[in-house]
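ESCALATION

Customer reports they have been waiting on this structure for their group meeting. Please prioritize. Original submission:
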Amino acid sequence: PANEPGRSDDEGPQHQVCIEAPFYLGKTEVTQAQWEAVMGSNPSKFKGANLPVEWVSWDDIQEFIRKLNAQTGKQYQLPSEAEWEYAARAGSTTAYSWGNSIGNNNANCDGCGSQWDNKTTAPVGSFAANAFGLHDLHGNVWEWVQDCWHGNYGGAPTDGSALVTSCSDNRRV
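Update from on-call: job pushed to the front of the queue and completed.
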């Protein structure tokens, strides 16, 4: 909503979305061990098998997904922005799945009160899961989604699919 604490202008206008197809999402961020098993290398600044992979571009993620699909015979993809928001909110109507304030020790970010703040990434799953059993959707590292970035959410799909038109500058969410 427009009055949500910390909301940016590019996060609106709010509109109803009906996600028409079921989807799965990993319980945690992709770990460096998982990335190395697929890609054979580790681009991360903060090293550790159970730390999230970081310093990867949207294109790097697409290559990871292509290789993962080839190795597993399954069809993985990034979630749409709507799917990600649905998963992050986990049925809540607040800014975070636990409330409207980042609070203390709920995430790894500047001033969030965790032992990792402003030092390193936190091991995946270090913070309580949301109501859907998902960890670390706020803080730690940024998550990529399939959508192109737009200056606002006007005209975005209402079926939960990714907004992938007009991505000429290759900016992604």
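Sent to customer with the following note: Helices lie at 32-39, 58-72, 81-89.
Escalation resolved.
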